[in-house]
Structure formats: C-alpha cells, structure tokens
Amino acid sequence: MAGRLLLRAYRAAPQLRSSVLTRPLLRSATTVRGIPTDEEQATGLERRTLQAFKQGKDPYSILKPKHYAGTKEDPHIVPCIGTKRLVGCLCEEDNTAIVWFWLHEGEAQRCPSCGSHYKLIHHELPH
Ligand SMILES: [Zn+2]
C-alpha cells in the first residue's frame, strides 16, 4: 500500500522525481573514492607513526631491525635513552646461554665471549 502511494507521488510530481534521481547520484559520488586508506583514516599515535615512516624514520622501533655484521667497521647498533645499557649476546646461533654485559656510551665495545662489536647510540623517545 505504501509502495503504491509512493509510486503515484513519484509519477505525479516531476520535482520529486528529479530529487529522487539526484539523491542516488550524490550518494554514489561519495562512494566513488572507495575505501579510505590507512593514512587517510589514521588518527593519533598511528597517524604520527605513518607520517614518520614517510620521512624514513621508525620512532617506535616497529620495523625489523637492520642486520649488522658485528665487526669494528659495522658494529651492532644499540639504541639507548641513557648512558649505558645491558646487552645480551647469543654468541653462536645454537647457543643456549646468553652472555650479558654492560654497554657504555662512547666507542664500540666487544662481547667478552665472541668479540662481536656493539655501539651505543643515543635515542630520543618521540614523546
Ligand atoms: Zn657474543
């Protein structure tokens, strides 16, 4: 019954017909853009992180750390907010024991067991 009344009103009033036709067009125009990307809908901390990624930064250490050779020329980089940090070295791949030692700011230090080089780099927290 209500459907018939709407159909009659639609046929009777040309203004209503034009408004009915424009509504779906407007609605479809808004959905043409599709689903918003992560960058478009991100807010807060996620937005700041995505903006930092655009600049090539990783302030929250989200990405996989870079592989270092551990030599004197390419030491393992250890980020730190202070002046020293406790480092654990798995000297060999299948080792079950971890060698712990304090790494201090300054020149690169060697692991007392295997001799890999580690260097402390000062790291600022983003907030
Ligand atoms: Zn080691």
TrEMBL record:
N6-acetyllysine carried by residues: 66, 84, 119
PANTHER family: CYTOCHROME C OXIDASE SUBUNIT 5B, MITOCHONDRIAL, CYTOCHROME C OXIDASE SUBUNIT 5B2
GO cellular component: mitochondrial inner membrane; respiratory chain complex IV
Domain of life: Eukaryota
One example of a Gene Ontology biological process annotation: mitochondrial electron transport, cytochrome c to oxygen
Keyword line: Acetylation, Membrane, Metal-binding, Mitochondrion, Mitochondrion inner membrane, Transit peptide, Zinc
Protein's UniProt name: Cytochrome c oxidase subunit 5B, mitochondrial
Pfam families in the record: COX5B
Locations listed in the record: Mitochondrion inner membrane
